[in-house]
Amino acid sequence: MRAYPWSCLAAWLTMAIPWLTIDAGGLDPRLDSVASLGSVFAQFLLTSALLRREGMHHAWGKPGRVATYVVQGVVTVLCLMAGALLLIVPAIYLYARWLVVLPLVIGEGLGVRGALRTSWHRMGPWIGPAMVAVAAIFAPAALLCLGVLSFFGLDAPLPLWPVLASDIVIPTCMVGSWVLAVAAHLLLAPPDPAAGAGAATDAPYMPPASPA
Q: At how many degrees (to 10) do helices 5-24 and 160-188 cross?
């Protein structure tokens, strides 16, 4: 995020400004669903921009990536919702295990099943640190939600300030998670660009150990 602050800021503004405008202006809350579409475009464009600037956008111009991106988004969101209904830990585990799905779809042109399978195998050896990183990134949003619920309750009407705070904090966590996905992809991708990002093999890639 320090390397590409303006790209991250643009993605954050794409999400935060519509939500802040709707909530601060007292507009119809149903417009939040329409404003949420901005996060779909922001995630795709930010991931694509970061991969391209890091020289890891091997699928540039390949058709079908947008449709695959939408399908994988639906699949992963449904699975994460199911994990969240069971317990928070399964949701974090699934998110971490599928952390690099989006860079694989956008940067390598993998299909949904191939990206899910490759990410599952690649993140396996690093699932512990990945879960810690995911939990740390989303911790501010989780703490804000828990604090608001504990203070105001489930049925009490919320004042404006916690709503606006969530409009700021949640996009920040989302941008951080997208950058985390790209960073993990850059760290764990095979060193040979010709090998792609695992399309030909599902074996987990293990980076060489650092010298002592």
A: 160
